Known about the structure:
Blueprint: E1 2-5, E2 8-16, E3 22-26, H1 37-43, E4 48-52, H2 69-83, E5 89-93, H3 95-106, E6 113-117, H4 128-141, H5 144-154, H6 157-162, H7 164-176, H8 179-188, E7 205-210, H9 218-227, E8 232-236, H10 243-246, H11 248-262
Parallel strand pairs: 3-4, 3-5, 5-6, 6-7, 7-8
Antiparallel strand pairs: 1-2, 2-4
Amino acid sequence: MKIVANGIEIHYGIHGRENAPWLVLSHSLACSARMWEPQIAALRDRYRILAYDTRGHGASAAPPGPYTLEMLADDLHGLLAALGISQPHFCGLSMGGMIGQSFALKYPGVFRTLTLADTTSRYPGEALPLWEDRIRLAETQGMSPLAQPTLERWFTESFRTSHAAAVERIRELILATPVAGYVGCSRAIPKINFSARLGEIRCPILVLVGEDDPGTPVAMAREIHASAPGSRLVILPQAAHLANLEAAEEFNRALGEFLDSAS
């Protein structure tokens, strides 16, 4: 389904039990709402789930950038308003977790809980050239040369070998990402700098991270946890960046227990 919110067309899907608490799922860079299939399957009996495609991704509009995290938070705010959704739980992975932090700080009191998975609240300055290299590659050669290095960061070698079909599905999402969307979001991501403000967020926070995540490693999750008093930290063994897929059972258990305790 599609709806116009914050001036752009946003693609979304609604799943699960009617009249249940709302759960919003926000995906990573170069993916789409399709990456949340294991979580939708596990939680649809207890929650009403909104999974949407971020600006520049999936079937949502991909206007020219650059984008900002505040803009992406405003997109979600407009989407929730257009659909009449209030007081949802929120779970975002990587870029989705950055959008969640931006939203919670700009729109306090909206989220019932905030789950931040394999994400960061701050990038060091030396990370900027890395992002600029990826942007340059996408602008000159498209998404194809980015796919394999991304998959190698997102999944451990053992998972890539044993779950080739699942990894291939993510490769397809990477390749299908519009260059304008990838570049727009890649200009927003490295500017994140929320660590000093996380204490302002009053809703319960769960921090999840794959033990072997090289992109947003455990140290970044620990910084979020330390900066958000009262938050919970769960480290998922034998998982890299897309821990919701590589360690789906453990991810679902941790998320489900957290949401149930807050509901």
